[in-house]
Design a protein that fits this description.
mainly alpha; 6 helices; 179 residues
Length: 179
């Protein structure tokens, strides 16, 4: 092989190594707390459950905050949901229904976050579970209303028929009340 071929072969090997190592260089999260053992929280509300957690972060992430992120009340939701991360583009800060693609969860739950250079302090595992579940439920500003069980038309008809049968059956008997 001539000198030029050796240089090209080495450049190809370096390029292959770089491409294969790119996820680690770009920031694959590591050192994450396993949240699978925590029960899922139902109907997580952003204003009453998530915003108080994020308000603790507003010292660094307030107006003109670090990474262009403002987590103050009234600002946080619009700065998070569906917004591309400035520290790890094109990953979203919060991807509704997808905690695994949401940098916010990694930022509070992993020691090497894949975005910010360190784990954001000040949250406990229960708060991280709330964030995970809020994202998994669609990262809604308000939780979806819980359905109230009701009778469908068929069920209502059956109920009425049973009541009428009961009244007809009781009609032949005289009910006495004791005074």
């Amino acid at each position: 092989m001539n000198q030029f071929s050796i240089i090209i072969a080495r450049l190809i090997m370096i390029a292959f190594w770089f491409v294969s190592a790119l996820p680690a260089i770009a920031g694959t999260p590591t050192g994450c707390t396993d949240l699978d053992g925590f029960p899922e929280q139902q109907a997580v509300d952003f204003e009453s459950e998530i915003q108080p957690i994020l308000s603790n972060c507003a010292g660094c992430h307030g107006e003109n905050g670090s990474a262009g992120l403002d987590l103050r009340p009234g600002e946080a939701y619009e700065n998070l949901v569906g917004v591309e991360s400035t520290t790890n583009p094109p990953q979203p800060r919060v991807a509704p229904f997808d905690p695994a693609d949401s940098l916010l969860l990694y930022a509070v739950n992993c020691s090497t976050t894949g975005g910010p250079s360190f784990q954001m302090p000040g949250t406990d595992p229960e708060q991280r579970v709330l964030i995970r579940d809020w994202i998994a439920q669609g990262a809604l500003a308000r939780p979806a209303p819980r359905s109230v069980p009701g009778l469908n038309p068929l069920g209502s008809g059956i109920l009425i028929a049973l009541l009428m049968l009961g009244l007809l059956a009781a009609g032949g008997r005289r009910v006495r009340s004791r005074v």
